[in-house]
Write a structure and sequence with these properties.
This protein has a 3-stranded antiparallel β-sheet, covered by helices on one side. It starts with a helix and ends in a 7-residue tail after the last strand. The longest helix is centred in the first third of the chain and has 26 residues. It has 3 helices and 3 strands, in the order αβααββ. By secondary structure, it is mainly alpha-helical.
């Protein structure tokens, strides 16, 4: 199938546009602010605790206390056990000095609907 002039023009336009848009997306990711940025700058823990959560070695004390107070569940969002555990873990987050953050933009790095932002003492 030979390329026509029209197809060549479309291909050239696509390549030119992609070369301009690629740096813009990199800039948008680099200018991320807040806690739901790549690399987890706030050391968030998902609420409610799940049996599938990855627990790191340097997990904040607030997240450890939440897991101690509220046992991890395996239920999917929408079940009665999920909502009961979400309520308990939200109260535990606040009780142990954390802030509750709702996740409106799910991503592979932040799949949960709600996170606890632990209180972290500023470095001196």
């Amino acid at each position: 199938m030979p390329l026509t002039i029209n197809n060549l023009i479309q291909l050239a336009a696509l390549l030119i546009l992609s070369s301009f848009l690629n740096p813009l997306t990199a800039y948008a990711q680099a200018s991320c602010t807040g806690c739901l940025c790549p690399g987890d700058p706030c050391q968030l823990c998902p609420l409610p605790p799940s049996t599938n959560d990855k627990i790191s070695e340097n997990d904040p004390e607030t997240c450890q206390r939440i897991r101690a107070d509220v046992p991890p569940i395996a239920d999917l969002p929408g079940s009665n056990e999920y909502f009961a555990s979400l309520d308990k873990s939200t109260m535990a987050c606040i009780k142990h000095g954390g802030d509750v953050i709702k996740n409106h933009r799910k991503s592979p790095e932040f799949p949960a609907r709600v996170y606890c932002k632990p209180y972290i003492t500023p470095a001196k």
